[in-house]
Amino acid sequence: MLDYNHEAAVYDETRGGLPRAEAAATAVLGLLPDTARSLLDVGCGTGLVTGRIAAGRPGLRVTGSDAAHGMAAVARQRVGAVVLADARRLPVPDAAVDAVTAVWLLHLLREAGAVRAVVAEAARVLRPGGVFVTTVDKDAAHDVGSDIDEVFAPYLAPTPADGTDLVVAHAAEGGLEVLGEAFFTGHGQGRSPVGAARGVRRRYYTSRLALPGDAAERLVRELAALPDQDRERADPQYRLLAFRRR
Q: Of the four, 23, 107, 113, 170, which is 20 to 30 A from 240 by CA?
């Protein structure tokens, strides 16, 4: 797992920046009911998406939360209201907010029971009729039929933490029913072989790849053998699911 306290300084510039954040925020806002007046963005990171959500709905009171000090410190400069918190134990009363969002979070939670706990917390803090919006199948979205995908294939982790079926099942346990879905482009996230190799070395893909022993070194060598080392392949198309608390 990356150290997100240190990653905060370079996160935005290496993750698509404002174009990706605006695409995500627009998709999230399209899934929120007009009646929503408060929103908690769990795992808000640097607050780039959180801030765009707030800007896109002026009447919405938006609060961010993140477990990493470095991320929360950056987010406070953009959002203001940011709490430092584990997404599995939110410092929020029951039935306190109209909406909860978790963008690019669940796929990182590889510890057993972690995704279930986060979804349960989202359900707990939502008011009846409230909406939970989250990305699902995040890592799979990067499979765009490229030669990089073919090289990655033998190293893929067997079960994604944010698989749609798993998230839907966890949501149902918490009294959440599927409300809708949306897709958006991950601008600036198309991989090049040289960029993918750099990501392997920096452990960007710990949620996606299983790399025991010298597997990371082997994968880097295979990526280095691909053509067009600096050419970015297609951008991913991310999926959002929205759930409503019964």
A: 113
